[in-house]
Amino acid sequence: xxVPLKRPFEPTQSVQEQPTLTLRPHKRIRLAIKRxxxxxxxxxxxxxxxxxxxxxxxxxxxxQISDALQFNEEDNTESIRQICEHFRKETExxxxxxxxxxxxxxxxxxxxxxxxxxxxxxxxxxxxPEKSPKVISQGLLTLFKIGNHQPLPTQTxxxxxxxxxxxxxxxxxxxxxxxxxxLGAFSxxxxxxETLDLISKYTDSQDSRVRAQAFRSILMMGRRNVILTPSLYxxxxxxxxDDYECVRREALQLVYELGIRHPNxxxxxxxxxxxxxxxxxxxxxxxxxxxxxxxRVRTEAAELLGGMxxxxxxxxxxTLDKKLMSxxxxxxxxxxxxxELFQSGEWSSGKKWADDAPKEQVNTATVSLMASGACxxxxxxxxxxxxxxxxxxVDSMCQLALANPPFAVTSLDFxxxxxxxxxxxxxxxAIYSLTKISKHIILREDQLETMLSSLEDYAVEVRxxxxxxxxxxxxxxxxxxLMVVQxxxxxxxxxxxxxxxxxxxxxxxxxxxxxxxxxxxxQLLQNHPFLDSAEKxxxxxxxxxxxxxxFNAAPLMPxxxxxxxxxTIKHYAYLRDTMPxxxxxxxxxxxxxxxxxxxxxxxxFLETLLANIQAAYKAPRARQALLTAAQDNxxxxxxxxxxxxxxxxxxxxxxxxxxxxxxxxxxxxxxNSRSPSKECLNQLMKKCxxxxxxxxxxxxxxxxxxxxxxxxxxxxxxVLVVKDRSQSALGPCQLLLHISADANHFLQENPNMTPDPFxxxxxxxxxxxxxPKPGRVFREILPLVQSAPPVMSPEINVNIKICTAxxxxxxxxxxxxxxxxTAGLIAAMPFVAEIHNLREGQRQDLRxxxxxxxxxxxxxxxxxxxxxxxxxxxxVAENDWRLRTTVLLSHGVWTEATQVDISLCLFVRxxxxxxLCKPVKVLFAPKPVKRGI
Length: 933
Prior knowledge:
With 933 residues, the chain is α+β, with helices and mostly antiparallel strands. The chain has 37 helices and 17 strands. A hairpin with a 2-residue loop joins β15 and β16. α10 runs parallel beside α12, α11 runs antiparallel to α12 and α12 runs parallel beside α14. It is flat and about 90 Å long. It starts with 13 loop residues before the first strand and ends in a 6-residue tail after the last strand.
């Protein structure tokens, strides 16, 4: 009997909207943090310390003071004095004294005091007679936290460093660690060399934690631009063989830093007359750490190798060869060996055969210019059992190959072998690394076989990554190109959902191999030299792939157009209209190309449009007519010129908000005018939300314009709602207060900016209100709103980008296929979309919007792991994301199949969502449950 297994629960948030039901918004409770009363103030707690007779009681009071620090009282001087006084009295419990020192640090970190130097002085005074290592350690740590939080005067820092030096001889490792931490973080400029020498001595401490902290403090001084001399190199090399992992990791970091800072400094090789550059020696020692017993040390070593790009090519290539040739030691000539034999005074006796041969006692471990562990170091990293080490090795190999083209050619075979790794993330990293170094390599036929065999991978990310890599690389022969095309088409027949990725792959292949494509035109199109072949189906994805490749090669090879049959020319016109981003313009069929770029025609059009609107500043009717016409023209411009899509949409949205504000303002001033519709107000607020959330690349002047128009729109919204008296004005009032506070904060951060007179007046009026209730705010701002002048037009900014989405699955053309499911059950549907210009902070606001025919709307939160950044030939696209998830559809019984709308939106505010794309319509048919057998 089969046992049913429980399906793992994956939580998703779903919000259901009922448009037909209108609810009155609830009143929001305004919370204000008041000053703490006398019985919970910090001063009252600190005064109770004088009467505490037991250590436990004092400890409870100190914990209560720590909890009360959030009230941020203005003057805590008396409380600090009482706390320090209790420290001196407390002689029994070290825990109380530790808590006192920690509490003094919290006073500074929570900004309860303006000057932290006096508290540091108090802490140092308290530590002078102290004998407990726990208390001293906490005091040093508190001084470090305060110094990191607020810069201390030089006099206080001198005393702090003197205190730390005095405690370096302590028997407690915690005291020594925190003393070294202070010395590394706050060493003075005139004592850097002395402090560095003092810290270096503790790299030989008997405690591993102190040794690790000493190296950490040296690195901390290096980050503060202190000169780390090459004399530290022997100490770091000796610690690479330490028994403790923490010491080896810090020593490895120091070896790396010294090699990067002094690459050409020459150091002597042990038991040899040769000298070696410091970067080469450091590289060899970091390579040796890849064979360390600890996984963390191996990972760190593999990561550090990628930054050592100044290493010599002979050492770099040795990392890919496990055989150490002659131990990389210098061979002496016969003359030199004979001279040494003569100087030694040893001569042959003739009693033994070949006893006059030069005797050379060589210890290969001591005369090797590179440690044996460096040979094949990257190969060892790629073969490591832990994926962290393999991933770090792949990344380092990619960085070294980018800086050294000959090494890129050598490392190609090793990266190709990583395509067969068992972990998907490692395979992806190898694919993306090979994509980055593609400009330095040309693929051979044997390498292509391994790459193309990975195209049948089950993971869609791996297949798309391989498509990207094949489009970025170059192949050497016609046979290689045919192999690529044939394999892409074979895999496409197995995975039809990869159609768009395959199109993009062959588009780039055609652009990079125009000469090879020219020689393969008859073979790819299967044209007979004498007989006409049957016309092929232009909807066949395999045929479209070949056409896209040839059409992208044709601009670089114009003779190719004469080899194309007449039917292919007709198909070009169709593909040019349906896929303009994949098919370039070709001079065939009498078509002409209109050249409109963001630097010429589009820019001039925008300037003329805004100048005409600004010229009609005092003519309301003409201005409103211009604003109406400008929106249509800008929407059309956004579709014509992709470079100015964001700028045109931003300007159109801004002008649309201007038009609505002026219409509503005219309606407000008119004596017997009807109250504006709720839809008009919602439309205005939605445009303001678009300006705030959908556009990136705005300059400070653009941000000021957006905040000003949002402030004006929210003020007008409040006035119209109060005059209408049909709905609560509490929500619009809170929105106005929030927007005004945001605008005021922005102007304080940018004092050089000048807002318009309306913004200045309304901010002053709101700031003067002690109790901002809706009625009172309405009476104060009504005259300002009624007499407000028109909004100024925005400036042209061609760097503005708009957040948009494009749904690639389900396709709009697949709306004829019906999704059938038993009523009440769930139908899973794959969903793939690309979101462009989505900022990092907006990912949690992304929603899937599912609208059923009965007007029920569900908002589903996609899982963050389903949202991944899009990879390009130049690396990761910063604000471009691909969402690959599954949409779950479920409903009751319907009589026939009906369309369900699926789209993506940003959930910026409850009840307000901004659509990123047009919805895709899917035919959905819930069937009734079958009764009986």
